Structure formats: C-alpha cells, structure tokens
Amino acid sequence: MQISFRGWRRSLQSFLECLGAAVLEFLELVAWGLRWPEPLKFVTNTFSYLDSVSITKGRHSLDLGVDIGRYQENMLRTTWTHGQADWFSPLKNFLTAGQPGYCTGAANCRGISSLIATHALTAANGYALADPYRGYRQTLTAWYVQDNIELLPNLTLNLGVRWGKITPPVEVNGKTANLMDILRDSNYEQLGKEPLFQIRDILGGFMPRFGFAYSPDTRTSVRGGFGLFKEDPLFYQFSVAVFHPPWANRVQLRDLKTWPNPLAGTDPSKGIYSPTIINYDYKYPYAMQWNFGIERQFGENWVARASYIGTRGVNLGSVVNHVQPALSIDANGVPFTQRGAPSINPALNDTRTFANIGNSWYNALQLRIQKRFSKGLEFSASHTWSKNISQAAGLGVTGGEGGNAFQVSNLWDDNHFDRGGRTRTSPKTSI
User: Fold this and answer.
1) Cβ distance 407 to 318 under 8 Å?
2) Nearest 10 degrees: CA dihedral of 34, 94, 87, 80?
3) Do the beta carbons of residue 322 and residue 293 sit within 8 Å?
4) Strand partners, 158
5) Mind listing the pLDDT tens digit for each residue in 85-118?
6) pLDDT tens sequence across 346-386
7) At residue 54, what are phi and psi to the nearest 5 degrees?
8) CA distances (Å), 80 to each of 88, 234, 269, in order?
9) Which of 64, 197, 303, 394 is most exposed, with the fewest beta carbons within 10 Å of its own?
10) Closest Cα to residue 67, out of 47, 42, 86, 87?
11) SS3 track for 21-43
C-alpha cells in the first residue's frame, strides 16, 4: 500500500484496520508511507569516440589519445511522490481523540503531525501528481599525452597529463530550477534550458601523472608514482535532486488534524519547502594518489617487497541539511549553536543537499614475501597496515570510497564533528 493524494483515505484506513489494539497501545511514534520510487525507470544512451596513437622513437615511447562522449540520461522517477506521514503517540489517541498526559489540549496533540511528499502545486488543482519525467544531456571532452622515457638502462621515467571537461547537465524540456543560495533564498530560480548547476574546476581540467622505476643493482628495484584523478559529475550523482517547482516540489505540511482525510482544507501553498537539491556551485571532486615501493630478491627464489600507498580525496560528494540553527561565537571565540536559535533560512523546513564538502585521507604500509615455484612449492604472505579517515563517503569512487558517513551532520564544523574512520575500513589485514 502507499499514500497518494488521490488514494489517501482508502489506503490509510486499510492500513489502520490491519493493526490490533494491543499494537496501537505501544506505538510511540508512527511514520507510514513510501519514500522511494515505484515505478522507476532509467534509459541512458552513451555515444563514445575514443582514439589513440603510440609512437616509439629512440628512448621515448609516446602515447596520445582522445575521448569524446555524449550522455543522454532519461528517467521516470517518482521518489517521495507517494507521501509519508508522522503522527503523535500513542496511535490509540489519534483514533479515539484521547490525550496523553503530556498534552495541553486535543488541538495540540491529536492528529497527524506532518506529511512530507513531492507533488506539483497548481492554482487550479491544489495538490497534483508530480511530473516525474526528466531528460538530461551532458558532453565529455578529454585528451591525454604520456611519455615513457628511458633515461638510463636502469632508470625509466613516466610523464603524462590528461585534460578533461564535462558540461553541466541541461534538461531538454526546460524543466529546471534551483536555489542559487541555499542559506538565504526562499524561492527557486527558474533556469529553463540553462544548466542545473555550474561546475567549478580549480585544476583547469588538467590531471598530471608521474612515475619512475629504478634498479640500483640486478636484485633490487625501486618504484614510485603520483597521479591526480577527477570524478565527473554524471547522472548517478544528481538523479534524486531533480524535483523543482512548478513541476514538482518536496514540501512538509504540519499540524494536520482532520480525520479521516488529513489533506482536507489544507493549502498546498502553505507547505514549507523540504527540497532535495544539488549545490549550484558544484566543485569537481578529485583524488591525489601516490605510492613508493622497494623490492628485493634473496637467493634464487625469494622476493620481499615493502610499499607505501597514500590517497587524498578532495571535494567529495556528501548529503547535508543546510537548515540548521544560526551560528554563535562564545567569549573564547569558539563557534556553537544556541538551543532554540532560529534557522538560518526560515523559508525551508530542511534540505537534502548534494554538496562537495568532504575530504578523505588514506595511508597504508604493505609488506609481502613470496617464494617462487621451485621444488614443487610456491607460497606468499602479505600484511597491510592502513588508516582511512574521512568526512564523507562520497557519491562515487573518488578517493577510494574515503568516508565514514554519507550524510554530514554538522554544517558549521564538519571538519571536526564528521571526521572519523571509515565504517568499512580494515586497519590490519594479513593474507
């Protein structure tokens, strides 16, 4: 069953009839309804052109390539369009008009406390079904150059650079709007066929790579490298943040006390925005990765290796609620939020904002010993000691999934309060 604006009364009554009195007695807070989509459909068309050339001349081995992609991202998405309701406890009081001991009056304690849903708001129809269809278009352009240089018989350098740029998403039918300044704006700005957000690339599109291999003698090798890698903002990162008025709007209505039709007499324009959006000023997520290792052969069949690996994720995607109490500063200059402090944006109930505010740090020492196959025996053993700290899980793979929480809880000081070890990290691993 699901709550919908056309079938609210029938589906809600059917649900309540399934609950026994004993169950109702112990329910303290009930939330019912579907947040997630049914139906759901994605149709993605990807057109790619890739070409590469390799040239070997003297000490140089040169690779060049180009990558051009066109993405058509079409979807039918009804996320949060079915509605979800919360009502005060216990549920028995909601059905019998009774009052729990902490209530000051039936008007304050009986009935559904809030309803949150994504729907369209129209002057003629009031509540209308949301428009769930979107079609976004993006274009990727990239090229790379890499040169392997044999400087000496025992020293090889690898130098390379990749340049890439992707256009921000444009909705083909002009069904686009956004909050330009989430902390201050009370209304969406209609963007039409302008991009849903702007992409800020502090690297100018460039991603350098460097590596080397050195052998001081016939039994020892030393290798190291550094690379910078970006994560393009494709559809999977913003697919939920696509409901904007007037085609759809995620709002919350409070103090709904009419039974059995809680929407009767309500004014949809009085609902408070509870938007799911993506930050208009989108910063490119990227990761810096580096490694250094030494390998040494002992005897004829034994090899030992020690390596250090590091990753630093920057601008990782996270989900944050921008509607938080206004920030205050105490006498010692320490920021804090006062109890009961007003919201920084009273026009919004809350937000589910996809923003690039996360960072991650990964460092690992890897040790390995191997006996090559001889006399019918081969084996290897390895141990990894690592530490993975971050502020956000990221929306994709940038930074090696460096994050301990997908949703950031403290907007003002996320570097401190949301910093911690990865939930899926393994500090010590032996094989």
Assistant:
1) yes
2) 20
3) no
4) 148, 211
5) 655 444 444 454 444 444 444 444 444 455 666 6
6) 888 778 888 888 888 999 999 999 988 887 788 889 999 99
7) -120, 130
8) 21, 22, 18
9) 64
10) 47
11) HHHHHHCCCEEEECCCCCCEEEE
